[in-house]
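Q: Got a minute? One more chain.
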Amino acid sequence: MSHSGLRPLRVADNRVPVFYAGGQKINKFRHQPNDVQGPEDWVGSISKLPPSILPQGANEKTGVSLTEAGYLDDLISGNPQGWLGDELAAVMKDNSSLLVKLLDAGERLPVHAHPTRNFAKQHLNSFFGKTEGWIVLDSDPGSKIWLGMREEIAADELARHIHTQSIETILGLMNEYTVSIGQVIYVPAGTLHAIGPGILIAECQEPTSFSILCEYKTFGLSENAATLGLGWEKVISGLTLKPDLQASQNYFPIQRELLKNDSSSIYSLFAKEGDDFFRALRVATTSEVALPANTFSILIMSSGSGILKWDTGEVIVSAGETLVIPAQVSGVKLQGNVGGLLFLPPILS
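A: Always. Here it is, folded:
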């Protein structure tokens, strides 16, 4: 039964100031003018941009999603059980444990990695690290990513290349892949990666902004910012410097069919090992399909138009819109000729 006043809410475009170029592909996806700037739109976010990288004079809420009913973090903290469900709220209080972004790489992003949960607990006072998953929404022909090591690199050798900012050398030791629309990519924490220009992704991740930036000088960043204030020796110790012998399987998971009939389908996009960090479903219907019950979710409409219904109401939805759905809103369905990506919190043991 739905809690009084709870309903799915549209989320406004939520650009977050970051240090690289991009943004027009987000505007194209959202069907809006190019006067909105910035390469990252944080969707369904309760995560604030850290004060250390918050521009002077910026709203301290920068990063937190603004819905039709107010900031999402305030809504969740005001009713954790209603928004997150009893189980997640009992473990995480008012933390949705999930961050979703629309990310438009207008230039190649720096070679970087993110800390694992173990590293974050030891050195950053955080339960969460930053494992990521990407779904390619748009891609220029031939667009590339670099993900994981093709050849093993010793820690001291990587440190030398970072010191001299020999980025092409590091890229040459990494796996290089050409990506296409619809592709799903899993990026374990600790794995070096870079996204080439011309790619729009929906990115789900643990709810932090921790990045270890091997490439930083050309982006105007300090060594302190690049190492999270920990220094190179410590952060390099938390990186995966050996090749993944099952890279093609682990980085590019095969979707799992959850529902398939004449009019509707639901596929789980990441392997079960990813459930500890986030879950993502690709949903499509030409009629009506029920969405998972009793869970907080973030919905990115990717195609068509239709109606999002629940037991006590409905709204018209169309491609490019983003919404958040409280856990204790019941009977949620998509109707019409419509498709979307539905992101769910991790399964926390």
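A: The chain has two domains: 14-251, 256-344.
Q: Perfect, thanks.
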